[in-house]
Design a protein that fits this description.
This protein is α/β, with parallel strands linked by helices. Helices cover 59% and strands 9% of the residues. Strands 1, 2, 3, 4, 5, 6, 7 and 8 form an eight-stranded mixed beta sheet that branches.
Length: 441
């Protein structure tokens, strides 16, 4: 009997162990919330927003133990050499109109396979936006996810629940490696109960309602900004406000008082961001002219800030000269190990830089960094172990080997710290040139 893609294997779980470790160590903070919302019964489709290319399925994979099957765009299945790997990784294709009408016809087979997976109680992970986009917003959801949910409902005992589980992925930065990520599971949508409650309506109408419901639930789980002409400037407003400690804790206190819940870690950041988005959107609705003038000034400032390489944290959390000098000397003190780390991890970061130079979509940068690290770290470790113990006394060899293990992470973290210090200095020397500085700060 042919093995199904959803069947478990020792090889899969062995590799997953190392993938999970690599994913979690790729972030300064990796936080999972809402595990209790994952249904324990029935068939569950996991539906996530899609902002960070291949890192999205990886952070979802690592959020819970056990296997999951993924749906991905069909064009990655065109290379025959990749088919075995995709099957091992438990990925099945989904065809879109852009793949051609003949290809779309194959979706009947795909839906049948997806139905079989879900009837075996294996989660199926889908990104209903159908493409990735590094934005705190949502694209219009495709109907494929609902066709699959209805297929499971039609092909099972009607008492068997079918769920769509919304998942929000909130990244601290879409393009910086070693940033933060929050994986938040929302309350599941009971599709079976929904169908029974709306049985008097045609299924296309039901699906439109489900689409609106899932969009609403996904938006609740992330920092959601309407995707209009003000998107960039609203996000700038939120970042500047949230980076200011006084505003951050004042907003957090207001949110916690209204919900009666104490928040922790990245949940606090998310709550503050969402509250600040609501604040500026509300202001725009109540006082459009005044808000328009404010947003115009912020947009001018945003363009100047980016051009000058200045972080929002340097502005909203401005340091005095004493703290800046302390950070500068800490940066200098860490420079020798940074240079050692650059050498010790060169076999990983040099190919990564070459790879990044060939990638046109910035959203794939962290995916490429992860892939290079995952593939090359064992080779680098073995090579340096041989070199150290061949040419150095064992005591020095062991010390160098231990120092080499965290070298790549230190390389990225030191780079982030150094950029912040240099940003602080630039702000100190250039803030008088910032447009509308006195009006905004």
């Amino acid at each position: 009997m042919k093995k199904k893609i959803q069947d478990g294997s020792f090889k899969y779980f062995f590799v997953k162990f190392f993938v999970d470790w690599s994913v979690k160590s790729s972030y300064k903070k990796y936080q999972v919330e809402g595990i209790e919302n994952i249904p324990a019964d029935g068939s569950t489709i996991w539906a996530s927003n899609h902002t960070n290319a291949l890192m999205d399925p990886l952070v979802v994979l690592s959020a819970t133990p056990g296997q999951k099957v993924y749906m991905a765009r069909a064009d990655i299945f065109k290379k025959k050499s990749a088919l075995k790997w995709l099957e091992f990784l438990k990925i099945i294709p989904i065809y879109r109109i852009r793949d051609g009408l003949n290809s779309v016809k194959k979706n009947d087979e795909v839906i049948a396979q997806a139905t079989d997976i879900l009837l075996d109680n294996v989660p199926l992970v889908i990104y209903p936006e159908a493409t990735h986009r590094p934005k705190h917003s949502l694209l219009k959801l495709s109907k494929g996810i609902f066709h699959i949910a209805y297929s499971v409902y039609d092909n099972s005992d009607k008492n068997r629940p079918v769920y769509i589980l919304p998942i929000g992925l909130e990244y601290g930065d879409y393009f910086r490696f070693r940033s933060t990520v929050l994986v938040k599971f929302g309350k599941p949508i009971d599709v079976s109960a929904f169908i029974r409650a709306n049985d008097d309506e045609p299924r296309p109408v039901q699906m439109q309602k489900l689409r609106a419901l899932l969009t609403e639930k996904l938006a609740e789980l992330i920092t959601f900004i309407p995707d209009d002409d003000d998107y960039d400037v609203i996000w700038e407003y939120v970042k500047l406000k949230a980076a200011e400690k006084k505003t951050f804790f004042k907003t957090l206190k207001k949110v916690e008082s209204s919900t009666g819940k104490k928040l922790k870690g990245l949940m606090r950041n998310l709550a503050v961001n969402k509250s600040l988005v609501d604040e500026v959107i509300g202001l725009r609705e109540r006082e459009p002219k005044k808000t328009g003038e404010l947003l115009y000034k912020i947009e001018r400032f945003r363009l100047w800030r980016i051009q000058n390489g200045i972080s929002v944290y340097s502005i909203s959390d401005e340091k005095g000269w004493g703290k800046i000098l302390i950070k500068f000397f800490i940066m200098l003190a860490g420079l020798p190990y940074y240079m050692f780390s650059a050498l010790a991890s060169a076999l990983i970061w040099v190919p990564t830089v070459i790879l990044l130079s060939r990638i046109q979509d910035d959203a794939f940068y962290n995916s490429a960094r992860f892939a290079a690290r995952f593939a090359l770290s064992p080779i680098s470790f073995i090579l340096w172990t041989v070199l150290y113990f061949t040419f150095l006394p064992w005591q020095f060899a062991l010390a160098c080997l231990l120092l080499s293990i965290p070298s790549l992470r230190y390389l990225y973290d030191y780079g982030s710290f150094a950029r912040r210090v240099l940003s602080d200095l630039r702000w100190k020397f250039r803030k008088h040139k910032a447009p509308d500085y006195k009006d905004l700060f």
